[in-house]
Amino acid sequence: MTFNQLIKLLPKLVKYNLKIIFAGKFFWFLLAAFGFFAFFMFQNAWNRAEINEGLIYNILMFPCLLLIFYPAVFGIQNDEDSRILEILFGIPNYRYKVWGVRLLMIYIAVFAILIIFSYIAILLLYPINPLEMSLQLMFPVLFFGSMTFMFSTITRSGNGTAVLVIVIGIALMFFSNMNSIEHSFWNILLNPFRVPDNFHPMIWEGILIKNRIFLFSASLIWMMIGLLNLQKREKFV
């Protein structure tokens, strides 16, 4: 296949994979994410909370995790149910490349939706930098999305993965609120726009950089484990 043929094929490939990724119930997850986003905005405005970038980040956190939930949890099961996984296993070294591209497309789509949500927050609540806000939110999205994908390749069940991820998510939220972890780089939900009063800005910046490196590195590890699991044909057939 020549480079020109590949360029012509790319839009069709992207369109096909997007249909697979966001088929089924994703629309309802998108609707739910927007519903929670609108509710949180209304609630904070009604309670006359102090509106700032830190609050917008917290408001967007749950909707962005909801956006990544469905495609990461049910992607493998949907492939298995539609027999696509059997076809992919018939092509050597291709199945994990397909899912590598799909994960990239999922994250790009979620990033685009977050930018739209950020612009809505600008119109209704507070002026922020939508690009910076969306980029910062992508770190926990990458972490939870890649971790969820890894578990989906282990359980091979959408419902099983969903239960497992929800339990782990609740546990991580609990640990993130502990005094010893809340303002450390181990906090997965660390809010970069909310600087603690007793922290020097330079110290806080160092913690934030370490936190983002930690989240990105862990995301790559989860993703690699998941892609390697896809090479074990006997687990899926």
TrEMBL record:
Domain of life: Bacteria
Protein name per UniProt: Uncharacterized protein
Protein species of origin: Bacteroides caecimuris
